[in-house]
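User: My instructor asked us to take a sequence, write out its structure as tokens, and then describe one feature of it. I'm not sure where to start. Here is the sequence I was given:
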Amino acid sequence: MSYSNIKRWLASLSYRTGVIVIIACVIFYIISFAQMLLPISVAAKSALWVIFFGLAKTAQYTALLILGKAGLESLKRKFGKSRV
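Assistant: Let's start with the prediction itself. The structure tokens for your sequence are:
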């Protein structure tokens, strides 16, 4: 599957799916930093951080592809963070 096929498929997903992926992104970001409080070795903390931060970034860019420009503008209007 090429990049353009994947991009087209993600863009065909619904707005609701994009919002769910954004929520997953936020959860992965929280976990990636909150796990630093666990009483485990530095190597384990580093591995967990890499895994969860990577998942957060993947979810972030996937949500951007799903929502597109119009979806992001809609989210900004909904939460009142429009900068015009």
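For the description part of your assignment, you could build on this observation: The chain has a mean pLDDT of 87. Try explaining in your own words what that tells you about the chain.
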